[in-house]
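Exercise 7. Given the components listed, write out the predicted structure of the assembled complex. Treat all entries as one system.
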Amino acid sequence: MEITDEILIDLYKRMVRVRLFEEEAGRLAESARLPGFLHLYVGEEAVASGVCAALENQDQITSTHRGHGHLLAKGGDFNRMMAELMGKSTGYCKGKGGSMHICDLDLAMLGANGIVGAGVPISVGAAYANKLKKNGLISVAFFGDGATNIGAFHEAANMAAALSLPMLFVCENNEYAEYSPRNKTMAITDVIERAAAYGFPGAIVDGMDCVAVFEATSLAIEKIRKGEGPMMLECKTYRFYDHVGVKGTASNYRTDEEVEEMRKRDPLLVHETRLIDSEVMDAESIQAIKDEVQKEVDMSVEFAENSPSPELEDMLVDVYTTGESS
Amino acid sequence: MSPDNIFEGAGEVSSNGGNSSERKLGYGAAVVETMAQIMREDESVFVAGEDVGAHGGVFGYFRGLQPEFGEDRVVDTPIAEQAIIGLGIGSAVQGLRPVVDLMFMDFICVAMDQIVNQAAKLKYMFGGGAKLPLTITTAGGAGLSAAAQHSQSLEAMLCHVPGLKVVMPSDAYEVKGLLTSCVREDNPTVFIINKRKLGDTCHVPEELFEIPLGEGHVVREGNDVTVVAIGRMVDEAKGAAEKLSNEGIDCELINPRTVQPLDIDLIVESVSKTGHLVIVHEAVRFGGIGAEIAAQVQEQAFDYLDAPVGRVAAPFSPIPFSPALEKQYIPDAERIVAGIKNLF
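Answer.
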């Protein structure tokens, strides 16, 4: 398929939006201006950006505890996200969900999830709705390598295959299940082997290259939309910061050298080099995008900090849907 | 006795000369009839679960649906309880009205994350944006020598989770009215079908009707003691009330119908009149719904109570297999009588 300049620039913008938002969130967390846990997506931007750029607006995604990147790559709003991270009433979840439950149903983003692997069965349900409604949409489940060790993933993979659902499984293999390396938590090297076990095809993709992810996703969803059943992509990627927060518990689960080595493959750098080498953009216009996005990020911090906290009476609101059913 | 035998025949509609007011229907058959009628009027409703399609469910309460509505709307799933609930959640968020079946109530434990951490909380965590018109049907209750993993009454665990509604029909009439409400409800509900009741018949209107969730029912009026009985225990409590009326104790019998939300006002009002309260359920006594009812009644009607609140419930052990033991395990009319007399 042809990758136009427009697509290349779009991919870059998506990644920059994720990167700069996340870096800002990291700084805020380090200065104790964000409550709760923060799982940053920095390093993995090529995956969410490559996948989401290939989707239709109403294709559903389910996400993970590391979910900011998925929503931003799908078009999420900085202000509502930052406000949610600060627990403000103007946030995506009115301040009652926080980082791990960020969602935007209008963008068909069915929620980040605090339980590893739990979004995958929900994605099966969305895919089933698509099948029943014959609406031509697909649902995409993002999950990590660690999630492929939990039962929910296996139940969902088998059910999606058995019911031949329009669903794309996207494994973000960052090589660590929280603080435990892949080779200590599974006896296989490539997670993609698990797709074969359930009878659907898949491919390993360079998850540090947004174009590779975009191309693989486009190919996969074309087949899925034709009714060929689920598929899986294993995107080999890497998280630059810790499982939670920015840097360093005293833990030595991985070396600084390893992180530095992987940072040489920073998905933004990889793509910037491509953009410049192919003369799609020059350094100046790249910087202009970054400046513009950073300005938006800064404004979102201001928006969030100036937003009110939820009122006490909001505590018991939305536990149930009330009123006449539709 | 196998579950199929329990259901066999007794679930058929018995016609009484076309007189709708006398029409009787079985408890299990009421599930089938209700689902069929709802599915005819609402295309967004579908059923999914283990063996619900071709086999009609292991208890037969989905029998005949797949031939009428097809495999896409009556879906045989793998044995995968987490994915079954996930199937319901994801499709409900997308605007369908799934009815997903967990076969035996004990199996909710296999799917607890999807029920408790996902279905119950999504709306709240998402800031109210999501609707979850999801019904989970499941067969609870003991009495078939199905032993400790196929007989439990775990409603108290579910009641403890904000976001869920927990519904326990005691007869075929309530099956129809409550199931209709559950499927039309925009919140996740757990509809607990008592497997010993499947063949019992009673009057059930032909047309769909709703019994509001959260409204209890006074089964029998009385002045001396309020008896709150849950699910199948309503039958046993009726028997106990009859016996006691011969001995001069006049029972007011309340069937909450749903345990979450719980119609505590109805119970408090009754206790204010009778001054005595006994709660009856099949679940174990410790931490059962009876404990919650007792606590709320002492908070709201302490001055009216003439005696401590009594509870008749199962002992604190897994459910034994042997019929000799199981019979002793489940509360019956005799034990309810004893429990009530204790108060006087």
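Discussion: DSSP finds 13 helices and 14 strands in chain B. Confidence is low (pLDDT under 50) at residues 1-12, 14-18 of chain B.
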